[in-house]
Amino acid sequence: MKKTTLLILIFLNVQIYAQIKFENGYLVDNFGVRKNCLIKNMDWAKNPEEFEYKLSENGEIQKGNLLNVNEFGTDEGNKYIKMVFDFDKSTDIASKLSNNGTPEFAIKTGYLKVLIEGKINLYVYNSGGIARYYVIKEGEMLETLVYKKYRVSELRYKENNMFRNQLWNLVKDNDFKLKEIEKLSYNYNEISKLILKYNQQNSNLVMDNTNKSKSILNLYAKTGLNSSSLELSNPVVNGNYKYENATSIYLGLEAEFILGINKNKWALLIDPSFSSFKGTVKNANGEPQSIIDYSSIDIPIGIRYNMYINENSRVFINTFYMFDFPTKLDAKLKTSQGFIEFNDLKWQGSTTDYEPIFGLGYNYKNKLSAEVRYCFNNDLLNRLRFYDTKYSTLSIILGYRIFQSNKRK
Q1: What is the pTM of this model?
Q2: DSSP of 35-87
Q3: 44 with 177, same domain?
Q4: Are residues 291 and 190 in the same domain?
Q5: Which DSSP helix (H) or strand (E) runs through 4?
Q6: Looking at the structure, do residues 31 and 173 belong to the same domain, yes or no?
Q7: What is the pLDDT along the chain (409 residues), one digit of tens a residue?
Q8: Are residues 198 and 328 in the same domain?
Q9: How far apart are CA 142 and CA 83, in angstroms?
Q10: Which residues is 24 bridged to in the sheet?
Q11: Residue-range definition of the domain harbouring residue 72
């Protein structure tokens, strides 16, 4: 528990340090006056109602909000405009679907995020996991793109896809085919792709904020050292065996898929590796009381949060769920009733009661990485009655990138 708390505290301190970052940007106040400023980057998962800014590097931190700022943005492409719009509160959660296809509109004043500017502008408003899209065609009014999923029976639902007709009416004056619209999904990728195509055909693309982040797949060859401890007990026969820490070589291959969202801060991981443990417990006379020989193929699957220090450096934290497949598990235990042997327990399969695995590391230029990882107390004999094992590992891991796809431009 102490080690868990320490890891969490380290993460929070690093995260707080990494997030306090002001970027070059601007704001437009209620009088239409534009001011260059530094805006605090909060990587808003949903549309903000306020933000912090400074007029100079050493200036006082001020707050902008819906009462005093009409528009703000950063040089990296984030741009928000205050508007009055209809927001559909309907949910897509199956258990909460309504029984009719009429949107549940509420009039809202908020900052819409600008995705595309041109002959057709595209905006999005994210709130509590709900994303709604809005468009303005040159010379026209803001239009809410309508989509709603609703229930028609206990096991069936339908969709109100009115947004397809709305988009068709917007783009049909160009060389578009109805079949390009009639199967369109209500999501960021498909809607933005259509409007980008329309604006490009009209040579009227002013801003494209749809591809500022790109997904990346990195493959790393990894090596390092494991320091493992093991304690085995059986209360029925009053047996308790604590093995000395054992050191082994870490060998693995990590696939890191950096998601093209939230400024590439989130990644999915799969990190197969080989691990082993050999240990002996002796009594005061030097006689073996317990011998264990364990090895397995480990396949941790998890997520990573990246905190970028600059263009070349990032600090990251991982958390995993482990699937392990023992290749060998032999044990010999001396109890009050004599020796008990377990030989070649490959049938055990993947354990299912793993405690969390955490890692904290550093990456340089997406090329070199170093990580400290801790795997908490795990039960190697979780399918054998009366036996309990606490197996934990502290790893120091170095990685070298051997492959990268879809590199950022």
Answers
A1: 0.62
A2: EEEEEE----SS--SEEEEESSTTSPPEEEETTTEEEEEETTS-EEEEEEEEE
A3: yes
A4: no
A5: helix 2-19
A6: yes
A7: 455 445 455 544 544 444 447 889 999 999 999 999 999 877 677 899 999 999 999 999 999 999 999 999 988 778 999 999 999 988 888 788 888 899 999 999 999 999 999 999 999 999 877 899 999 999 899 999 999 999 988 888 899 999 999 999 999 888 888 888 988 999 988 999 999 999 988 877 777 776 555 678 999 999 999 999 888 776 665 567 788 888 999 999 999 998 877 778 889 999 999 888 888 888 777 777 788 888 888 888 999 999 888 778 999 999 998 887 778 877 777 666 666 676 655 444 444 455 678 999 999 988 999 999 998 877 666 655 566 778 889 999 999 999 988 654 3
A8: no
A9: 9
A10: 38
A11: 18-208
Cα separation, 120 vs 135, whole angstroms: 7
Which CB contacts under 8 angstroms, 24+ apart, belong to 2-7?
3/374, 3/376, 4/356, 4/358, 4/376, 7/358, 7/360, 7/374
Do the beta carbons of residue 220 and residue 401 sit within 8 Å?
Answer: yes
Nearest C-alpha neighbor of 24 from the set 80, 74, 99, 77: 74
Asked, for residue 159, whether it belongs to a domain, the answer is yes
Name beta bridge partners: 124: 113, 133
Token pair 């264990």 in the structure block, residue: 292
CA 177 to CA 121: how far, in whole Å?
A: 21
For helices 162-171 and 188-201, angle between their N-to-C axes, nearest 10 degrees: 10
The upper half-sphere exposure of residue 393, i.e. CA atoms within 13 Å in the direction of its Cβ, equals 25
Q: Which residues pair with 359 in a beta bridge?
A: 318, 373
Boundary (domain end) residue, out of 190, 208, 226: 208
Distance CA(231)–CA(377), nearest Å, equals 9
DSSP per-residue letters across 130-142: EEEEEEEETTS--
**Strand extents, DSSP E, 171-272:** 207-208, 216-234, 239-258, 266-270
CATH number, domain of 346, equals 2.40.160
Q: Tokens for 243?
A: 């093995």
- 64 φ/ψ sector (left φ>0, alpha ψ -120 to 50, else beta): beta
- Establish if 358 belongs to a structural domain: yes
Task: Give the Cα separation of 70 and 307 in Å (integer).
Answer: 30
Q: Which helix (H) or strand (E) holds 17?
A: helix 2-19
45 close to 126: Cβ distance less than 8 angstroms? yes
Q: Is 113 exposed, middle or buried (0-12, 13-18, 19+ CB in 10 A)?
A: buried
Position 7 in a domain: no
